[in-house]
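User: I've been going back and forth on whether these two constructs are worth ordering. Before I decide, could you fold them both?

Assistant: Sure. I'll take them in the order you sent them. The first construct and its structure tokens:
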Amino acid sequence: MIRVQDIPFDAGTELNSFSSRVAGSGAVVSFTGLVRDVSGGLSVMEIEHYPVMTEKALGKIRDDAMARWNLADALVIHRYGRLEAGEVIMMVATASRHRKHAFEAAEFLMDYLKSRAPFWKKEVTEDGAEWVASKDDDEDALKRW
């Protein structure tokens, strides 16, 4: 399941719903990302995307994880629009018969979402606005996959 939305979601509710759909799995792993504050004080983060492009890219990343780790299911939720520091921005959840597969698949999804998902993020602070550039650490994380 892939969802790209502008409305907030409750990570606990999403995790409970996901877990109820994966009977027979031995492990469920989830990660919830929050909008982090930046030095200078984040007023808001603005996230833009092209819906068809984004959903296609996220679907491919999810499908790759499903096949590579033989998952029972995988969930990706990502928000767009105006978000404040501390708000939930994204969530991944994976389910597998074995915990190692669920953990690795979740990390794979998070690494690819951070580096390859077609979202454009702008941090707005008291000092002005700046587009978020890709980071070398994020690119390096992809090398292990």
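The second construct, handled the same way:
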Amino acid sequence: MNKIGIILLAAGESKRMGSPKQLLDIDGKSLLRRTAEVALATECYPVVMVIGANKARIAPEIINLPLTVIDNPMWPEGMSSSVKMGMAGLYMTYKDVDAVIMLVCDQPYISVSLLERMIEMYEAKKPLIVACKYGDQVGVPALFDRRLFDELLSLTGDKGAKPVIMNHLDETHLLTFEAGSVDLDTPEDYEAFQKG
């Protein structure tokens, strides 16, 4: 069995939402807590959460969960800084990981079964990457083999891990996750999601 960690990126300031989207209510739970509980319900270890902007408001949501929580003071530099901090947190908790799954906290349809399917695909084929496909997009959740850890650590700017996926598209296994196109970035997104 492979040792796979999860990094949950939740450091952004939610500028377009106007308030922390991590705290949006989804069926009585905050989006952040719901995503964290999905990650913790898998067999993955460790689960690392990167927080930054609005951390004082966000931290109480996860206070009693068995997570490694990393504060990213560099969050204004963009998502790549959170990827790097998450990787550092992963190493600090457990050095012997074979792969890592990157999650964001604004995709309300992430599920345990989706993450398990990604892990099964990785264990069966050992690709460099397992990424999700929705519409004509390829992106997160995405699993990265440890051979790409140095590349993840050298990311810059506000792109997150997407450039790494695009660099290795021919070695990426894609999993269809149409609901992945739903992300809650604006009040309109959230309103549409609630109407279902």
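Notes on the second construct follow. Residues 168 and 192 are 34 Å apart (CA to CA). The radius of gyration is 15 Å.
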